[in-house]
Amino acid sequence: MFCIKCGKPATIGYLCKECFADGKSLFTPKDFTLTVCPRCTTDKEEAVRKAALDAVKVKIASMRVKIVGSAATVDVEAEGKLTNGLTKRERKELHVRIKEKLCDRCSQISGNYHEGVIQARGPNREKIFEAVRAALPARAITGIARRAEGCDVRVVKKGEAGKVAKALSSKYDVIRSYKLAGEKKGKKLYRSVYAIR
Prior knowledge:
This protein is an alpha+beta fold. The protein is 24% helix and 40% strand.
């Protein structure tokens, strides 16, 4: 029996191995839109590369990314197994639309949103302030207010503020209180305040 496409000896049904492999695809390229934050995405190419890996879902042999403006072309070469134990290497092109939008964290920081405040007080206020800044990642702080009595560090998430206050409680006195920050859907929202001295 011979392959109905090329005339070589047929090994899988009416096809040879090569023609059978040509008719099967390892992956179907799906063009997609990738949303990146213009403030915290430092490497657009790497973001496109990671998103393409997630979209393709096969073993990648090589990948080339080319970005022009708000669009990217991803040249993907994949390697994988077909049925009947055959392996195949295949190359396809993905088209990615890049959309810029502030992520939740950057949006909160730009809007001065904060759920917690750490107050550095007392004679050691400068040491406390430096310890707080060292313990918090830069993207956790929405603002710093210097006052006569010390510094107030506004922290995006109350959990982050709580962790720092707990870590410093072994060395300093920590007084926790709550301040009404507003209402959302009829529910009162409170801000955690940690006075450290």
